[in-house]
Amino acid sequence: MKLYKFRQLTSCKDLERIIEILETNKFHCAKFSEMNDAMEGVYIATDSSKIDKILTEKNEKRICSFSSEKGFENFAMWGYYANGFKGIAIEIEVDESIVKKVKYEDEVPETANVEEILTTKLKYWEHEAEYRFITESNEDKCKIGEITRVYFGSPYENLENSDEIISKSKQILEYKKYKEKLKKFLNEKDIKICNFN
């Protein structure tokens, strides 16, 4: 199955991180405690004697989040995770058996199952159409699938006065500079390049 990882591309550090992903074919897997949702991993304990065990298990996990095609096509995702279209989406081919589809619920789950806790989010995150790779590896970077192509965001390129807007935006000009450097690298590595508009 095809999944997508968004990255911003407006600094030298962003470019270096993306090139590292493309060279190693490995993605950063965040510790549970590093996730961006304040309600991440929240659950209703059905048995209070298991709370410490569940917390320990959650903290042993590393998570790498991807979007399905539905999330990839959502303009809001490009806004949040690709810095307002000033970034990329890396497409990877993943064995469906190694990722978990996130469920979106109205209520916090009532469970003691750590996998269920880590793959359930509240409905307001549903636009992400998220899949998760979950591991107990001590490594913070893991190979999850094969990179098949890179999509570039195209801020303002479909507007009549796009050249004028772009010429006055330092951030977009920086993005375009790093975009050209990354395109050169992708061509050398024979990785397919596409634009998302």
TrEMBL record:
Origin superkingdom: Bacteria
Protein name stated in the entry: Uncharacterized protein
Species: Arcobacter cloacae
Lineage, highest ranks first: Bacteria, Pseudomonadati, Campylobacterota, Epsilonproteobacteria, Campylobacterales
